[in-house]
Design a protein that fits this description.
alpha+beta; two-stranded antiparallel ribbon; 7 strands
Length: about 150
């Protein structure tokens, strides 16, 4: 099923902000103002936004956790002659990114300002500091191999 959405992306709309956070900003096969995006259709993103109070960041937190779950559930960890896949490592990175983004959303909620849409770090990459489910602090950039 194609992931159809409006083109060009509207970065001030909640759907556009979700796409910006996911890095899903360049649709292909654009026709009549629509294009096919990599991850989700606009309708799917709107439904996810509705389930998460209209918050783009909280919506992306749920998406990252869902994709992380799928990585562990479907890929697990295996090695063949020429390919190694570590779904647990990808899931861990997705979870750390989700924790970082959720903390940012919590801080914005506490301030009541809605904050910005972008994650930043001193090095300019995705992610800053995150605490994992075991209470360990992780600093640095969190890259999501094969996802972003």
């Amino acid at each position: 099923m194609p992931n159809i959405g409006r083109k060009p992306l509207n970065p001030s709309s909640p759907v556009g902000q979700v796409r910006l956070l996911l890095g899903d900003t360049d649709p292909v096969d654009a026709a009549d103002g629509d294009g096919e995006y990599l991850f989700y259709s606009d309708n799917e993103i709107e439904s996810l936004l509705n389930m998460h109070g209209g918050s783009p960041k909280r919506t992306v937190v749920r998406i990252l956790r869902s994709v992380g779950f799928a990585q562990v559930y479907l890929l697990k960890k295996f090695t063949s002659a020429d390919v190694a896949v570590d779904g647990t490592a990808v899931a861990r990175e997705l979870r750390l990114l989700a924790i970082d983004l959720e903390r940012e959303a919590d801080e914005e909620d506490a301030r009541g300002d809605g904050g910005s849409v972008f994650l930043t770090s001193p090095t300019g990459g995705f992610g800053t500091t995150a605490m994992d489910a075991y209470g360990e602090i992780h600093r640095g950039e969190y890259l999501i191999p094969g996802i972003l």
